Amino acid sequence: MAELTTLARPYAKAVFEFADAAGELASWSNTLAVSAAVAQQGAMQKTLANPSLTAAQKAEAFVTVCGDEISAKAANLLHVLSENKRLELLPEIAVLFEQFKSQREKAVDVHVETAFELSGDLETKLAKALSAKLDREVTVQSSVDQSLLGGVVVRAGDTVIDGSVRGRLAKLAEAMNS
């Protein structure tokens, strides 16, 4: 996984910088999402793995499947990725692009796991508090995990805040055993 991210990062950064300079972040986000979905399809993966096809033929097959969903500039990206044998990196490129876009827009998606369903009012208060703490616009997605016993686990990118009873008990057990 880390290797794919390392390989995909230069492409994602280049696409992001190009899209940002052109003011086309939203359209490129859509294009990369479509391309990533196509790259993950079984039939396309077989086509990309076919050793009898040239890089240009693979790129053309990819462009044909995407159809009108991608621009000529995106088709050029697909040709470059194909020439470098990197079409399989498209899902990772799309993820990295979205991370760069979120950083630029100062927005973050936060996943909150709770032991019980959050009320709308409490979810709004939590979003405001997290927005102030993270200095970003926060979009909260919540789910229920009854194994937490109580409290919450908040995941915002690489940041994890474990305020669950299960997490606190695990920390207490670790402290007692050391």
UniProtKB/TrEMBL annotation:
InterPro entries: ATP_synth_OSCP/delta_N_sf, ATPase_OSCP/d_CS, ATPase_OSCP/dsu. Keywords: ATP synthesis, Cell membrane, CF(1), Hydrogen ion transport, Ion transport, Membrane, Transport. SUPFAM superfamilies: N-terminal domain of the delta subunit of the F1F0-ATP synthase (SSF47928). Its main location: membrane. GO terms for cellular component: plasma membrane; proton-transporting ATP synthase complex. One of its GO terms (molecular function) is proton-transporting ATP synthase activity, rotational mechanism. The keyword Cell membrane applies. It is a peripheral membrane protein. It is found in: Cell membrane; Membrane. It holds the Pfam family OSCP. This protein is part of the stalk that links CF(0) to CF(1). It either transmits conformational changes from CF(0) to CF(1) or is implicated in proton conduction. F(1)F(0) ATP synthase produces ATP from ADP in the presence of a proton or sodium gradient. F-type ATPases consist of two structural domains, F(1) containing the extramembraneous catalytic core and F(0) containing the membrane proton channel, linked together by a central stalk and a peripheral stalk. During catalysis, ATP synthesis in the catalytic domain of F(1) is coupled via a rotary mechanism of the central stalk subunits to proton translocation. HAMAP family: ATP_synth_delta_bact (MF_01416). PANTHER family: ATP SYNTHASE DELTA CHAIN (PTHR11910). Belongs to the ATPase delta chain family. This is ATP synthase subunit delta. It comes from Pseudoteredinibacter isoporae.
